[in-house]
Amino acid sequence: MKSFLKYGALFFLFFFIIEKSVLFVLWKAPELEQDRRLEFVLEGEMNKDLIVLGSSKGASNILASQLGNETGLASYNLSYEGSHIVFHHFILKTLIKHNTAPKKIILLIDTHYQFINEPSLVFRYDRLYPLSKYNHINDELIGKGKKNMLSKFFALSRVNRSNFQLSEKETNQYNPFDNSGSRPYVKRNLKKKFEYLDDTEPYNPEFELKEKIEAFNNIQKLCSVNDIELICVIPPNYSTYNATFVERFKVLLKPESKWVVYDTLNSIYKQKEYYYDQSHLFKNGASVFTSEISDFIKNNSN
Q1: Torsion angle, alpha carbons of 246, 252, 258, 262, to 10
Q2: Where are the transmembrane segments (predicted)?
Q3: Of 93, 121, 150, 268, which cross-links 84 as Cys (Cβ 3.0–4.6 Å)?
Q4: Strand 75-77 versus strand 50-53 pairing type
């Protein structure tokens, strides 16, 4: 019996030491991230007038600092590369829960791919794992089946492989973060080869995913309930204008939601030097596009 108690005590001592060590790792992990925007949201440090949501197009094509200068609204970009509409809904929920709701949300739309299955657009769990010390994040991971209920009680169940990468992440040389959360392309990748895409294939709603339609509807509801003006923005691509997608998109809009499409008559959007690749504007093109959004806001403010 004494032997059992001895080994039991040693086990609990060992577990206690490991648990405390893991807690240190969990608390240290966010500080080593190059992208700390979600951490600032969770800490209630994202109280802005205008927030930009979207995928890589939102991150690179809209310059939040320029929006702020041109509209007078304190603006910040919370777009995440490779993220889809379900993740954007999560970011908006988190933002509203931990901060004062913004006056306006700019939601950048991934033309053609917004509501269908696109492997390059995912729920960015990699942005959540380094922040698993926060109960809000852990609860989301549990809800998505990425963590179990034990993680509510033990740090060992919260930890992820990414938490042990205890070195600061490198900055992307092509589109580094600016001080407003945007990631404009400032350097060209000479390995990127692309040509103008003359794509006339009509958009087919039959391929839409229910969870993505629901996420878009929930974003609209959140904005309506919290008195936020939602402005959906359709950006340029180095390709033909997809009118069939735009018509379908307009059907999904609630009456209180606004939308704006890039100036299809502006010849700049047909000039290759204004693009980093087929889907993303270079910084000079992003500046032109951002000014169009600023003008829309100033001329259509509630």
Answers
A1: -10
A2: 7-27
A3: 121
A4: parallel
Containing H/E element for 261?
Answer: strand 258-261
Q: How many CB atoms lie within 10 A of CB 218?
A: 16
CA atoms within 13 A on the CB side of 260: 21
Q: Where would I find the beta strands (DSSP E) of 50-125?
A: 50-53, 75-77, 104-108
pLDDT per residue as tens digits for the range 77-113: 999 999 999 999 999 999 999 999 999 999 999 999 9
Residue-range domains of the chain with CATH = 26-166+174-299 (3.40.50.1110)
Q: What is the pLDDT of residues 218-254, one digit of tens each?
A: 999 999 999 999 999 999 999 999 999 999 999 999 9
Residue that has been written with the tokens 């996420």 in this structure:
215
d(CA 226, CA 280) in angstroms, rounded, equals 31
Q: Under 8 Å CB-to-CB from 97, ≥6 apart: which residues?
A: 136
Distances in Å between the Cα of 109 and the Cα atoms of 114, 222, 232, 264 are 6, 17, 7, 16
